[in-house]
Backbone:
């Protein structure tokens, strides 16, 4: 004879009450069930029969005693191994059906197959066949609340058969049904027993128990009678169903398949609570929108400042007259100083700088502005092209020619009707100058002076006709190689100290300005980004709170999934997927909102610059935030006790 399928020896189960009192529910139960038997365990409420069924199905553990399934000691099995035992070895039929609301009859029946790794097509066809066999083929797309009690119980039976489990555990399957529906369910169990499945029926109704081939009576946590040993009937199936018959299909689903199933379940769950999901999304939406908009504003401001500073020329060195200390005597800068600097290595050009206030007139239009007496090297030094005509030449400088080049705004002011200024004579401090060119538009480079509002004249002409003395405010030096600008700056300092006999000048370069501006803008961007990240974290806390509420509300659903064979990783994956999905959807909506709000700021307030890195980073951060803050609820769900979860209201 083959070994018994289910063997319990001296099983005891003790629960500790809230007051610390130990209550012994099972008191030394020993029971053997052969493969293919139809056994009814009957007893009144509180006799321990449901606790015994939970132990038989691997939902609960005995306090002491031995339980073996097919010769394997169940006490040696841990979390996922016990889940595999429930998935492949047992099908559960509960008194209150325990169907997952919001999902169709077909989806409820398919659920054990999902956790067993059955291909989708096989799951669908098998579920449809089972429902058709039980008379529900036309109602397989109905949800539980659209089915009668008897129909829901038949769906529960179909689910128990989904993975071809050799053992069906039915706990009061007729308890919530009328007599006609109850008789149908009992008849179905008889059919399954006739096919060779092992049926363990838990009931308090002796009439229902009479349908079994063997009746075991429990009272006060003990077996008080067993028809198998008392001369009663005992089933002798010709070909009992074994787990090996369906084991070929029962391999855990791949990570990608499980993720896809979890994604589908997450969508369904979130859709069932649309308003709450929208409120949860709100925190993530605001956080992501803030990240994108604030970083775009910060990056736009940074680029604007860098453009302004960069327009001055990153290859420039400024030699300024005066040490900055009023107590020290000052030797003026001269054109000869510039000529000496021009002979140094790495120096590309030298531009003397002598400005003065001037009144410019053409016809009856007067305009007060600034004049700049400089050299013909200005377009090269400043990388500043002439828009019309030409800049004055070195020959003009040597000759002290009365020629001028107008800034963009000066030309527009003096010639408002679009007349070309080239070749015209304008009065500069009542001295006529012929216009040879108009500079390209440059903008406000310094933040305090609009360079497009200048009038440019040769240095010699400015000294002789407009200022009267050759003292320069500064000498602007451009270098060939920016990487050697520090070396060139030191060489200029040494030369000027030697020429003046003291350090009565100052030397600066644009790289220091750029570095300072960059550091300042990076700090501002970091502060803006930090503020946005805080908002995103607040949204993540909201996700965690909602997910914790969801776990509490769906505790029974979690228990149902565990009974169907869901592993710890399956439960964790589903709730993590829901959290990531909420955060991801919120991230996408937040991207749209951030782009729109940033565009409005850029349109009406200040320049903004969106970057793909910031957008991708914001969405990724949202999903990661959802995963991080969803981890605690997911782990709480995965670590629920199956029995406690199933019994929750």
Residues:
């Amino acid at each position: 004879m083959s070994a018994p399928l289910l063997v319990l020896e001296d099983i005891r189960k003790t629960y500790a009450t809230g007051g610390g009192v130990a209550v012994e529910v099972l008191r030394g139960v020993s029971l053997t069930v052969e493969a293919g038997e139809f056994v009814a365990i009957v007893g009144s409420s509180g006799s321990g029969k449901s606790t015994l069924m939970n132990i038989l199905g691997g939902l609960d553990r005995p306090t002491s005693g031995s339980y073996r399934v097919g010769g394997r000691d169940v006490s040696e099995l841990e979390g996922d191994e016990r889940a595999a035992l429930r998935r492949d070895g047992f099908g559960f039929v509960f008194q209150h059906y325990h169907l997952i609301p919001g999902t169709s009859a077909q989806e409820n029946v398919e659920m054990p197959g999902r956790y067993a790794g059955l291909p989708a097509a096989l799951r669908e066809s098998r579920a449809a066949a089972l429902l058709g066999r039980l008379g529900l083929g036309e109602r397989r797309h109905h949800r539980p609340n659209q089915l009668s009690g008897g129909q829901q119980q038949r769906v529960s039976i179909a689910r128990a058969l989904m993975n071809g489990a050799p053992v069906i555990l039915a706990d009061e399957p007729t308890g919530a049904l009328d007599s006609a529906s109850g008789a149908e369910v009992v008849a179905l169990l008889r059919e399954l027993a006739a096919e060779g499945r092992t049926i363990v029926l838990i009931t308090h109704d002796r009439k229902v128990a009479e349908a079994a081939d063997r009746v075991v009576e429990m009272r006060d946590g003990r077996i008080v009678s067993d028809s198998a040993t008392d001369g009663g009937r005992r089933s002798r199936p010709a070909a009992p169903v074994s787990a090996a018959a369906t084991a070929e299909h029962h391999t855990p689903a791949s990570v990608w398949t499980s993720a896809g199933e979890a994604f589908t379940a997450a969508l369904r769950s979130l859709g069932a609570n649309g308003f709450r999901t929208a409120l949860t999304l709100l925190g993530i939406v605001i956080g992501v929108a803030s990240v994108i908009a604030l970083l775009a504003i910060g990056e736009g401001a940074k680029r604007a400042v860098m453009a302004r500073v960069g327009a001055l020329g990153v290859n420039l060195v400024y030699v300024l007259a005066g040490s900055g200390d009023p107590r020290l005597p000052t030797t003026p800068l001269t054109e000869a100083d510039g000529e000496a600097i021009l002979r140094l290595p790495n120096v590309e050009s030298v531009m003397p700088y002598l400005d003065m206030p001037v009144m410019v007139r053409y016809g009856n239009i007067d305009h007060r502005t600034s004049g700049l007496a400089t050299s013909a090297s200005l377009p090269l030094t400043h990388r500043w092209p002439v828009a019309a005509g030409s800049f004055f030449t070195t020959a003009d400088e040597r000759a002290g020619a009365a020629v001028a080049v107008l800034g963009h705004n000066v030309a527009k002011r003096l010639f408002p009707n679009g007349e070309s200024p080239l070749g015209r004579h304008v009065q500069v401090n009542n001295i006529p100058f012929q216009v040879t060119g108009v500079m390209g538009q440059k903008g406000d480079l310094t933040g305090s002076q609009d360079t497009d509002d200048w009038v440019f004249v040769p240095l010699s002409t400015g000294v002789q006709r407009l200022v009267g003395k050759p003292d320069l405010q500064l000498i602007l030096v451009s270098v060939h190689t920016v990487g050697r600008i520090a070396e060139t700056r030191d060489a200029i300092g040494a030369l000027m100290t030697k020429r003046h006999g003291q350090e009565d000048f100052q030397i600066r370069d644009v790289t220091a300005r750029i570095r300072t501006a960059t550091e300042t803008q990076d700090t501002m961007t970091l502060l803006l980004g930090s503020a946005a990240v805080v908002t995103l974290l607040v949204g993540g806390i909201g996700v965690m709170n909602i997910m914790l509420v969801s776990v509490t509300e769906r505790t029974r659903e979690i228990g149902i999934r565990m009974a169907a064979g869901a592993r710890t990783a399956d439960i964790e994956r589903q709730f993590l997927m829901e959290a990531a999905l909420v955060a991801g959807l919120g991230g996408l909506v937040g991207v749209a909102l951030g782009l729109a709000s940033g565009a409005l700021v850029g349109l009406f307030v200040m320049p903004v610059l969106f970057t793909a890195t910031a957008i991708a980073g914001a969405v990724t951060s949202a999903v990661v935030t959802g995963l991080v803050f969803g981890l605690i609820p997911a782990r709480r769900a995965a670590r629920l006790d199956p029995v406690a979860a199933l019994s929750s209201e």
